[in-house]
Amino acid sequence: MSSSAETWAKRSPDKQKLREEIWSMLEETELAIGPAKGRIPNFAGADTAAFHLSRTPEWLAATTVKCNPDPPQIPIRLRALYAGKVLYVPVPALEQDLPYLKLDPARLAEAGVSFELAATSEGYMRHGEPLDFDAIPPLDFCIVGSVAVSRAGGRTGKGAGFADLETGIFRELNLVRPDTPMATLVHSSQLVAAERVPMMSHDSPLTMVATEREVIRIAPPDRPPPGVDWDKVAPDQFRDIPFLAALRDKLGASGPGEGA
Question: For the structural domain made of 14-217, what CATH number should be given?
Answer without folding.
Answer: 3.40.50.10420
